[in-house]
Write a structure and sequence with these properties.
Blueprint: H1 2-36, H2 42-94, H3 110-120, E1 127-132, E2 138-142, E3 147-152, E4 157-163, E5 179-185, E6 189-192, H4 202-211, H5 228-234
Antiparallel strand pairs: 1-2, 2-3, 3-4, 4-5, 5-6
Helix pairs in contact: 4-5
Amino acid sequence: MYVQNKKVDVLKAKYLKTEVKLSGSLKRLGNFNYYNCKGFTLAEVLITLGIIGIVAAMTLPAILEHHEKVVTANKLKKFYTVMQQAILFSENENEELKNWMPSEAQVRKSEGFEQWYNLYLDKHIQSINKKKLKEPYYQITLADGSGFVAYIANRQNIFFMYCTDIKYCGPEIYDGRHSFLFTIDSNKKFIASLVGSQNATREKLLDSCSKGNFDDPENSRKDARHTCARLIQYDGWEIKKDYPWRQTMIKKQKS
């Protein structure tokens, strides 16, 4: 009995020593937090915010531009796919495309395009608004807010000026950033840009897209960058780093 009580006393003593040590450690920890932890001064906070603002100002435009390029490329690919499918569906109903191209009476008339489009393509393409513009142009707003202005150039070609947002649409506007040129050709069906650009090298497409000088090699025409859609298609519906997001204007020097 005596031995058992002695063991209990020893255990109590050890417990009290441990409790004292723990209490002292917590007290020191509390003193450390109270006396040694300091907050940021107002000047330090302002300097930090200033640095963050400068970094954001330098990187944000590049981030936004990259996002715009991705969205643009995806919309171009979607439009190309929608038009290809619409033509395919109509061919299943009306023979090959070359057999239902516009008549001579419909060429270069907005009413002529309206008649042809409503007869062959309209039911296969979701749109929310259609209207005539000045001759020979016709405008259609698609369900996703993009759209196009189109006209029948001749019995073999119908030109489409697609815009990523309807507010950028307009006759003969394909600036390579918000609007792009496509063509329905009686032989090649629906193509990006023009028939003449289908077999061009990437170097040639890049140069022409940059300068907008397809019609005249020595002079640029503003917002008439014929080959940009074909360049993006050539690159797998991706806008590469060297893509000319802004047009480079050239003009022949007078002799």
